[in-house]
Amino acid sequence: MKSTGPRGSGQWEQISWDEATTTIATKFTETAQKYGPTAVYIAPYTGSISALNGVIGAGYRFASVIGASAGDFEGDNEGDSASPCGANEILGSFDGHDLSDLRNSRMIILWGNNLAETDVPDMRFVLDAREGTITSEGVTQPNPNGTTAKVVNIDPRYTSTATLSDQWISIRPGTDGALALSMINVIINEQLHNVDYVTNYTVAPFLVRQDTQLFLRQKDVTTGTSTKYMVYDSNSKTIVPYDQSGIAPSLTGSYTAAGTTCKPAFQLLTDLVSQYPTSEAEKITGIPASTIENLAKEFATMSPAAIKAGFGGISHWYYGDLTYRAMITLSAICGYIGVHGGGVTTYNGALLDAALDLPDWLNPDKKAYTYLPPLSFCAAVETGKPFPVKAAWFPVDNFVNQQGDTNRTIAALKSLDFVVVSDMFLSPTAQYADIVLPVATQYEREDMLPGGNYYLQYMPKIIDPLWECKSDLDMFAEVAQKMGQGNYFDKTPDDYLSLLLSGLPSGLTLDTLKSEGVVALDEKDYGTAAFQPITQPYVPYYQQHFPTPSGRIEFYAESLIPYSMPLPIYNEPIEASPTNPLYQKYPLVFLTCHTKFRTHTQWDNLPWLREIIPKSFLEINPIDAQARGIDDGDTVTVFNDRGSIQILTRITEGIRPGVVNAYQGDWQEFPTATVNMLTHQKINPAQSVVFLFQSNTAYYDTLVDVKKS
Amino acid sequence: MKVNEGSLLQPLLKTGTAFYVFVGALLVLTGWFLYCWYTQLSEGLIVTGMRSVYNAPNYMAYGVAGGSPWGIYVTTFIFWIGISHAGIAISASVRLMNLVKYKVVARMAEVLTLVALPMAALSIVFDVGRPDRLFNLLQFGRFQAPLLWDLSAITTYFMATIIYLYLSLRGDIDELARKLPKREKFYKRLAMNYEGTETDKARHTQTLWWLAIAIIPIMVTVHSVVSFVFGLMVARAEWYSTIFAIYFVVGAIVSGVAAVYSLAWIFRWLYKWQSLITDEVLKGISWALRNVLIIYLYLWIAEVLTTSYMGPSAELRVSDFLWSGPYAVIFWPLAIIGFGIPAIILLMPVFAKRLFNPMLIFIASIILNIAFWIKRFTIVVPSLLNPPLYQTGIYIPTITEASIILGTFWMATLLYVLFVKMFPIIELDAVRE
Amino acid sequence: MVIDLSRCLGCWTCALGCKAENDEPIGIWWNRILTTGGKEMDTPSGTYPDVRMTYMPINCQHCDNAPCVKVCPVGALRKRDDGIVFLDWDRCIGCRYCLVACPYGIPAFNWAPPVQVPDNSQFKLGAPAVPVRPVGVAEKCTFCFHRVDVGNLTPACIEVCPAGARFFGDLDDPNSQVSQIIQTKPTMRLREELGTEPSVYYVPPRNPTRPQEVSAT
């Protein structure tokens, strides 16, 4: 369809595919000539996670061959990159345990994670760990370690997950880092940390120069030697390279070397966490000091203990990377990283597990798109920095509905010269397009699911595309052809699938994948194949090899020195904090959690689900509701400086006073109840140290107020 | 002025404009009723207030969505059954106890029953989702089901009433054949070779006497089985009660007697039959009305006390719903105006004979019947809106629904009026004695 | 049937699986998830932070002493030999006495001509053996008799539950999975004091809520 009125007016005219793709090709070519090829922005995202058509799909290949700019699937449209960034900073990669490993845990902390609603299939593993498994004979089988895990849920909301937990701890949103640091404090004070593990697998004993903040290197002490890290040996009472044999590296103390004071990283950590005794943490988090103390002691003693973190609760914050690093540090000092039943897991596995031949698929002939994170899109459109963006194509994504600060996004789209949106439905994003292209569903095209849980799944084409729909691959192929790059899209989907599979060391063929349907990845085919052998269930870092500069767990990371956070310090949330003057005007923290009745925006238009939840609503505590004269069933206005929405209320005791929640993903009530009208696009510059995860939408880091409308 | 036979036959002979206007209005209203019923048949019961309300707060309750499975259709059914009790109660009592004074109201009471029972049946036809499958009741009827007891009892009651009425009417029909030559053929055929001899008359009287004896237990059974539809439901708070059978039967007698009083007063006023339907007669009826009303109020208080003193939580929820919840606006006016005022009016003459005022009691009887309809509503609906596990919302009848049940009232009136035009509403014998 | 409330997530998958399998129209659910807690769905009882909530999926209890079977005037509701309480949609006259008699509020009624979404014009949703019910009849959970009759299949709700909280089997067989669970775990049935003898057993949740606080949805 082609838009016949101003963008957003809803006036459309039907056109042919030929006209559509020709228009797109012409416009893109024009834009590239006028402003440079990167002025065209292609932004596929997680609307589909399939290989050819979705999140690592044809859109990026297209962008590469025409030299456009593109967002990246590990980017930030949904606040999912703070945690991966933090993980990369401390562990060198972002990976997670296969959640069936939870049956080996004695304690499971579901931290900022509403698993029972956001990841229903995986909640099964928590239940099995907690209750044991019921066999077909009706017998309850306990877990391998013979016990049942204690499940703790840390969340400002009392959710379905909390109902299935042994303990629910309500926390002030965004203060999870302080909780983690306080727990580390308790553990260190009580001498419950795993000294051996910490000494051998983390940077704990490495001496840090207090003048430069960098690690002390051998060449700092003795010129002309190596860059080896240095430790203080308690036996010889000298500073020696860390890999010297027969030494007893000290974790504490203050020493002199290279003309400056040097302390072991662990000492610095201890100094940091000593600022967060439980009494202080209680003031920050709102959790009683005794609860924090008990939680910490249990965590350290109920070995092994696993942390299952949520993208929402941890990563949708400006300082999410700091929080995640603190949590990993907590797990590390207890020796739980890389062991069965332990670890810090956000995602059941890595984001992309299989060692597919991505370079040949996404960068044919070494052509590459220029990376522009979606969060930087608006700024590029507004200011022309880092380069101007004048045209865009949004496939596989409901950008307008899901990006922070909707008003700003809409303004940016309206100011573009040309916008293409491909989708299955006339979504809010499609409303602002010049050309809308109908996309085929997953049943109407060949594809495969590239992992995310250590399996490869074949997605066969069941029927031909109905009506005039085309698959994303075909669309991009057609436009590429008209832009003279058709030779990159002249193969069949099977050919491209085979191309991707050719990167697998095990030699798995497409035919095998097709006949099996679902294939468990061979050990050799894991993306983390460097760290063989793999253990079952999959536990990352099982060999205790970390792809960090030091090869160890870097709770002290040199890369973050320019941002004054080599250690996982605690910072108050950038906006949603009582220390923010804005808080006087907008005293409620605005959460936009994930509902069980949608997957982001998908399924929002299903009549059956809409029968259960006819309209979106705002969860609010009775104390806050009464203070504002709000009763059951009232419609309210939620507002801040960026926008306002009208929404129904649900008064519930299950949410912390001072916090409100409206589920994200609603587009049936766009724009009246579009929650992202209130969120922002602030970027944390510290995240630039990890290229792939350099920006993150901090959705929850938002303040609002509510009034009766 | 003494009323004579001619006066009794006046309604059959003379028809004034007022009558045509009245009937015309009723026909128009009946036409509206038929339209509403047609709407319901084509669109389904969703046109009623019993339907799902998709946006109601407790939307997902009750298997479909909110509301009450039974509403004013069932209420009206109980109401008409209640009215039907008057006829035979009075008529049979008159015959069995030889209360000659009250013979004047016997027939009008019987006709009331005759007209009320089909209306009751019709109310149920409106209520079922598949009226086209009603024959399944005959083909597959199960006798363990209270609704089948209803069907059997009411059918029996209806047949008995028709036979009773016919037999007592036959003599008059025969006379009318002679007195109204224009309609001789009609009456002659209807009389079916009535001989009119003394033996014939004696046989009729004898049969009627036995029929009267049989009909009384049938009458009690009818309303008892109606009560069992509710009283045996262990799932329903406020329904599951041993008192229901007698409670309903007494209630039926009250509303029936009140209806007969209303009719007697209307005919007395309309046709100036003061000398036939004397103050004594009215006083007697009101005396009976007062006494059964007192019994009814006693049963009601017993019921209320039992459910509110220390009830299970479900009972308390229904009580609260009725007394202080959404239906309080119905309940309290019902108690105070609906029952309180008639009770006072009826009790006044006990203290001072001169306080007996037929018209006031007529008003009381009308109020009483309206009150009884509302009372049955408060029995049926609040319990259904508060099932054992949770509350399901509110039931508000729709206009279509209300029009349909009002249709039964219009049609009842039309049928009654038709009878009055064809047969003497007071036995011709009554004048002669 | 056994439903393990210590595992129920309140995710509605069983309700939706049932709806798809049995072609239920808009407005009708044979399987619903009640929230035992606050006034509305997914809200807890108590006062923050001392709050409690659990979920209770509810469907026809297929009682051994079913009130609905007793009161149906045309015998449309019948108890099969295997214990399933079956509603004959061809015989039902729509009197709704079963809706009135059921203590659990289970039977649903087609107030309006049923609207299937997606509509049945292109293909019929759900199992072919389950017909579309007409307007004016009642309907309820059938324990997927069409699956049970075939052989080893369990009802749709059992199969789709992602938490492994639902079990189905022969209560008369002491060695069946459901019988074993009932023998080894504490179980309860809804409103046992009413004498309905339901066939659905619930394993209580670990964090129980006081029983008075059940709320619809």
What is the gist of this entry?
The complex is a heterotrimer of chains A (709), B (433) and C (217). Helices cover 28% and strands 16% of the residues of chain A.
Report what the structure shows.
The complex is a heterotrimer of chains A (709), B (433) and C (217). The longest helix of chain A has 19 residues, at 17-35. Chain A is globular and about 80 Å long. Chain A has a six-stranded parallel sheet, with helices on one face. Chain A is α/β, with parallel strands linked by helices and 709 residues long. Chain A has 24 helices and 29 strands. Chain B is built from 15 helices and no strands. In chain B, α3 (72-96) runs antiparallel to α4 (103-127) and α3 (72-96) crosses α13. The longest helix of chain B is centred in the middle third of the chain and has 34 residues, at 146-179. Chain B is globular. Chain C is α+β, with helices and mostly antiparallel strands. Chain C has helices at residues 13-21, 67-71, 97-101, 145-148, 156-160, 177-184; strands spanning 2-4, 32-36, 45-47, 50-52, 54-58, 77-79, 85-87, 108-109, 138-139, 166-167, 201-203, 214-215. Chain C has a three-stranded mixed sheet. At the B-C interface, α5 and α6 of B face α2, α3, β8 and β12 of C.
Q: Termini of chain C, distance in Å?
A: 21 Å
Instruction: Please tell me the overall pLDDT of chain C.
Output: 88
Shape of chain B: globular
Unreliable residue stretches of chain B = 54-65
Oligomer: heterotrimer
SSE pattern of chain C, N- to C-terminal: EHEEEEHEEHEEHHEHEE
Helical content of chain B stands at over 70%
Helical fraction of chain C: 10-25%
Lateral strand order in the biggest sheet of chain C: 10-1-11
Return the structural class of chain C.
Answer: alpha+beta
Second CATH tier, the architecture of chain C: 2-Layer Sandwich
Largest sheet of chain C: 3 strands, mixed
Shape of chain C: globular
Structural class of chain B: mainly alpha
* β-strand number of chain C: 12
Q: Look at the structure and give the mean pLDDT of chain B.
A: 85
Distance between the termini of chain B: 16 Å
SSE ordering of chain B: HHHHHHHHHHHHHHH
